[in-house]
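Predict the 3D structure for this chain.
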Amino acid sequence: MNHIMIDGYRASENRLDDIKTVNSVLNEIVQTLNIDSVMPPFLLPYYYAKDGDDDGISAFVLLEGGHITIHTFPRRGCLFVDLLYDGYFDEDKLCSILRRTFHYEPDDEKTLRTERRFYNPSMETKSLHGDFGPHIIARLEDVDVSFEQIFDMLDVLPESTNMIPICRPYVLKTKEYVCGVVLIAQSHIAFHYCVKEKTLFADLFSCSFYKSDYFIDFLRKQFNVADVNEKTLVRGSKHDKQISNRERKIKSLSRWQKRNI
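Done. Predicted structure below.
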């Protein structure tokens, strides 16, 4: 169960704000990396944020035991991409596709990689002050999970963790998995249950702070287990710098406009 998380910065605002581009790149990733998708891309423009800089596009594709998610922030020039898949894929090709499509450089990219069945202890963990939003990954073993239960969990978790859902939960039964995802304001919650192994893989990623402790407590109570194998990963560590860069850009443009009035 391979998982790569990619944060890209200084990307093209026009590309990040173009729904056709986001749709095309999702299809290209599936075809080029030869991964098994179980649905076409689902895309949702989000232009209702309290802060206009948080507007953008959220999109996902459910895979056979995983997902691809993309969250773009055109005005901030950044995007957050996840590819979770129960099988091999070429990470270098994935990064190359994203850089070419959204016009950013390798130095403006941060990646995290893990094998979800066996966490990498060297990964950066625990949220740091100023991070854009933490990403919780969790694994529960020897549990029974139904299609309906995944839907119900996705239905109640956004509000319970102080986040805003922007679509209804989307759940599919595949050959070996029951997979579900719900989009929240420029983020997502996802569950993938391997029926044969009786193992549930859970993700909660938000581009803002949320009640992260509640998520793990919720899983403990839901499945009546004492321990949940979980990690909180560091993401968005360049975001503060990206915001300050944007503020300098706005001031520079303002001066230019005044000179040319």
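Residues 3 and 84 are 4 Å apart (CA to CA).
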